[in-house]
Structure formats: structure tokens, C-alpha cells
Design brief:
- The chain is an alpha+beta fold.
- The chain has helices at residues 7-13, 29-37, 41-46, and strands at residues 2-5, 17-19, 52-55, 58-60, 71-75.
- The chain has a single domain (2-75), classed as Roll (Ubiquitin-like (UB roll)).
- It has three helices and five strands; from the N terminus they run βαβααβββ.
- Strands 2-1-5-3-4 form a five-stranded mixed sheet.
- The longest helix is centred in the middle third of the chain and has 9 residues, at 29-37.
- It is globular, with a radius of gyration of 12 Å.
């Protein structure tokens, strides 16, 4: 699975992209975010709170299903004015 990080997430995590196999037992975006948060305190801080996501360039929610072939984009909430 390809995971892309945008905006402040990219800055906080020091990476814009990572490849990893979908962990065993993980079937949703929310579960994957929980797995990523467990890496260390930096990941936990970056991914705590509201994180928007898109699966294969379609806006999604935490309960959306994932597969190994998906591209998941994660980004912080965007405000406009």
C-alpha cells in the first residue's frame, strides 16, 4: 500500500510517502491510523486529532475499507477564507 502525507503531516513526519504492506487484521483507514500512531511519539502527535483521507483520490472516512493495492493520502484539515 502506498501512503502519501501532505501539508503539516509531511513536515511533522519528515516524509511525503511510504510503502508498506497492509498489516494483518487491518481492514479500515482508522485501524491503519492506529497502527501508524503506535510507531512512536512523533507519529502519535502528528496523527492525533482530525486527519482527512482519500483512498485512490476519492475522499473517504475512517471506516472505509482498505486493500494492499490502494493509495491512501492523509492530510490535515484545510481552512479557507
Amino acid at each position: 500500500m502506498k501512503i502519501l502525507f501532505f501539508g503539516s503531516l509531511r513536515e511533522q513526519l519528515g516524509t511525503g510517502e511510504m510503502q508498506l504492506p497492509l498489516p494483518a487484521g487491518v481492514t479500515t483507514v482508522g485501524q491503519l491510523l492506529d497502527e501508524l500512531r503506535e510507531q512512536d511519539e512523533q507519529w502519535q502527535q502528528a496523527l492525533t486529532g482530525t486527519v482527512l483521507c482519500a483512498i485512490n483520490q476519492v475522499m473517504s472516512v475512517d471506516t472505509a475499507s482498505l486493500s494492499d493495492n490502494d493509495e491512501l493520502a492523509l492530510f490535515p484539515p484545510v481552512t479557507g477564507g
